[in-house]
Amino acid sequence: MLFRILDPQTKANQFWRDFDRLNDELTRSILDSQFGSASNFPPVNVYTKEDEALVTCLLPGMETDQIDINVKDNLLSIHGRKKAEELAEGTEVHRREIFNGEFHRTLELPFRVDQEHVLAKYSNGVLNIHLPRREEDKPKKVSITIG
Amino acid sequence: MNTLTQENNRELTEKVEEKDQKQSIRVYSPNVDVMETEESILFRVEMPGVDQSSVEISIEKDQLILEGKFVPPAEPRGQVRLAEYREGNYFRKFTIGKAIHSDKAIAKMKNGILELTIPKMEPKKTKIEIQK
């Protein structure tokens, strides 16, 4: 954190809450740009429908056995190691832009997931994870009779 | 200074290609590894989400153009909760500073990575006699 305001009384104020959030994000982005961060790898998109969520993830050049997917309640974690391509002797490297190394991402979903029916598919370097919503978490219609 | 491959204006920010006036498709500059062995030049290009059939590679003289067309999914995926990347086409252009056998280039596509191997040409030496 760049600054810290040691006055708990101001916490209730909307302004300070927003300020703290801005402060957090700025600090994180400054740290990331200075030290580099793998925390944003791989980039992820999350889509939700009423009864399922879809997480798509750009992960080119992986093998399926190198990707570890774990689901617990409403948390999804994707973990893996991207191996660097082995170079033959006498190879000269001119450019190296492709990421390799270990990565770990945890995402929070808006509902709890039915772990048994999670479906993951990997094609053309994109990982698609379908996460169905847990039955008891689904919105239920309750009819109220006014009498 | 990189003598093997010269890059022609890599766009750091994405540019938008107007298509059919209404629908615009983003064009991204993909990450590339370039390696050189004794016999060949190897390009590895990240093109996640692009099918093998929609990749186009062309070499004209010393200009190498790599293109990948993105195909949007058939059915809607729901409400967007988090968007860290956007889908679009890929485009990158290089000038190769060495004599190559462009007709003997081999390309492979696996798990979103395009691998292109271009054999190098032995530079021909022509001795020119000086007339007396």
From TrEMBL, chain A:
SHSP domain span: 35-147
Highest taxon above the source species: Bacteria
Entries under Pfam families matching the protein: HSP20
Family annotation (SUPFAM superfamilies): HSP20-like chaperones (SSF49764)
Signal peptide annotation: none
InterPro entries on file: A-crystallin/Hsp20_dom (IPR002068), HSP20-like_chaperone (IPR008978), Small_HSP (IPR031107)
Gene3D superfamilies on file: 2.60.40.790
Similarity-based family: Belongs to the small heat shock protein (HSP20) family.
PANTHER family reported in the protein's UniProt record: HEAT-SHOCK PROTEIN 20 FAMILY MEMBER
Name of the protein: Hsp20/alpha crystallin family protein
Origin species: Leptospira bandrabouensis
From TrEMBL, chain B:
SUPFAM superfamilies: HSP20-like chaperones
Annotated segments matching region Disordered: 1-23
Record protein name field: Hsp20/alpha crystallin family protein
Basic and acidic residues bias spans: 8-23
Native organism: Leptospira bandrabouensis
Domain SHSP: 23-132
Recorded family membership: Belongs to the small heat shock protein (HSP20) family.
InterPro entries the UniProt entry points to: A-crystallin/Hsp20_dom, HSP20-like_chaperone, Small_HSP
